[in-house]
Automatic annotation (TrEMBL):
The chain crosses the membrane at residues 37-56, 62-86, 93-112, 118-138, 159-182, 194-213, 248-273, 285-306, 318-334, 340-359, 371-392, 398-423. It comes from the Bacteria. This is MFS transporter. It comes from Rhodococcus chondri. It is found in: Cell membrane. InterPro entries: MFS (IPR011701), MFS_dom (IPR020846), MFS_trans_sf (IPR036259). It is a multi-pass membrane protein. The keyword Transport applies. Keywords: Cell membrane, Membrane, Transmembrane, Transmembrane helix, Transport. It holds the Pfam family MFS_1. Residues 22-432 form the Major facilitator superfamily (MFS) profile domain.
């Protein structure tokens, strides 16, 4: 009798350990990926125009923003390839590969000579490395989301899936803190000369940590079951687009509001705009962004946990509604030129971002069948990123130049949130569905 009851208990402990380890690995891995991504976005806003695009004069800043967005164009390619191999050979191997790829590109940027040293080859090399970052990110999110959601108990997929989403505010927090430390401990001349390179080179340590943790995680139990049943798809992308095009489109559109509005905070535009327009210090603005990242992370967890009881789409649309309603007032607060009001704007903004972002991994996982799930989640995420956040800093800069006011930017971001609200309303909530099917 004693032996009979011991096995299930031991098994239950093992399962709990597996899904907690998977969630932790997703958080660490995506934090490293997004740290690398955000360091670039913030450096592009602060200094890359002078270092790599100086001959373009005033247009250099616009081109620097374009390089932030250009990586998004290559996300779908990364998503297609990662989805193909993730659905064919497993989630784990692909996640290790994407992490290594991102690390190599980030360290390469930190070692890159500037325009003053090698001329036009400097911006060309910078763009190539940025494309590699985009390719890697395109394959990263889907795999990390599925590893956490497919390991989780059915009634807690929202909160465990949020471990993937936490990589964004944590990566942003880490990137902004590192960049802030560099700006505080160096003079403007030192930062321009070599200080900007340090956050990129720090990525070496983060990659090693992330790589070690990911290697220790077991393969997704859903993928293992598919393999044992010999139900893996050998053409997952083709099967996805032939049988589930509506889900891909709706999932992508449900994400553009969060992604577009999020990149107003993390894409570097706000820091560059407020520092140049109102003469506010870069360090003070970066610290305000840190405060926003903390709130974003907190409400990502709140939104994810809430979705486990109230449903994914309902919670996401509370966030989308807040983003739509606050987009224009956000810039009214920023345009006061007061650091205190900018803090308020960023913190309120982060509430809507978190609520719309937290339930997303569970929602995407539950929208697609197991055999094409990696492809479906990754491709929908990548398309949503292009339509939403890819060129938000660039479009915002263009709207500001064209209209002379930030109101147009607020309307643009509000429209993105409204589109996501409508798309999310059209998605059937399938919370708790059997993920092995």
């Amino acid at each position: 009798m004693h032996t009979h009851t011991l096995a299930p208990s031991t098994s239950a402990v093992t399962v709990r350990r597996d899904y907690k380890r998977a969630a932790f690995a997703s958080t660490v891995g995506t934090t490293v990926e997004w740290y690398d991504f955000f360091i670039y976005a913030q450096a592009a806003a602060l200094i890359f125009a002078d270092l790599f695009f100086a001959p373009m004069g005033g247009a250099g800043q616009l081109v620097a923003y374009v390089t932030v967005g250009i990586s998004f164009v290559f996300r779908p390619l990364g998503a297609v390839l990662a989805g193909y191999f993730g659905d064919l050979i497993g989630r784990k191997a692909v996640l290790v590969a994407t992490l290594a790829m991102m690390g190599i590109a980030t360290v390469g940027i930190g070692l890159l000579p500037t325009y003053a040293s090698i001329g036009v080859w400097a911006p060309i090399a910078l763009i190539v490395l940025r494309i590699v970052q985009g390719f890697s990110t395109g394959g990263e999110w889907g795999g990390a989301a599925l590893m956490s959601v497919e390991h989780a108990p059915p009634t807690r997929r929202g909160i465990f899936g949020a471990s993937t989403q936490m990589g964004v505010p944590l990566g942003m927090l880490l990137a902004t803190a590192t960049l802030t430390l560099c700006t505080v401990t160096t003079t403007d001349e030192q930062f321009r000369e070599w200080g900007w390179r340090l956050p990129f080179l720090v990525s070496i340590l983060l990659i090693v940590i992330g790589f070690y943790i990911r290697r220790r995680v077991e393969e997704s139990p859903v993928f293992v079951e598919l393999s044992e049943r010999k139900q893996r798809s050998h053409a997952p992308v083709r099967a996805l687009l032939r049988r589930h095009p509506r889900q891909v489109i709706l999932a992508a559109l449900s994400f553009i509001g969060t992604n577009g509005n999020g990149y107003m905070v993390i894409g570097g535009f706000l820091v560059a705009y407020a520092s140049k327009t109102f003469g506010l210090g870069r360090t003070e603005l970066l610290i305000a962004t840190l405060a926003s990242a903390v709130v974003w992370g907190a409400f990502t967890l709140i939104g994810a946990a809430w979705s486990d009881t109230a449903g994914r789409t309902r919670v996401m649309n509370v966030g989308n509604a807040l983003l739509a309603l606050f987009a224009v007032p956000f810039f009214f607060m920023v345009d006061t030129g007061s650091l205190a009001w900018i803090y308020v704007a960023l913190i309120v903004f982060a509430v809507g971002l978190g609520l719309s972002y937290g339930p997303q991994p569970a929602l995407f996982a539950e929208m697609f069948p197991a055999a094409v799930r990696y492809s479906g989640a990754s491709i929908a995420y990548a398309i949503g990123a292009i339509l939403g956040g890819a060129f938000v800093p660039t479009v915002s800069q263009w709207l500001l130049t064209w209209t002379g006011t930030t109101t147009a930017i607020g309307i643009y971001l509000g429209v993105l949130a409204v589109i996501s609200f409508a798309a999310t309303r059209a998605i059937k909530d399938r919370s708790g569905v059997d993920l092995s099917l």
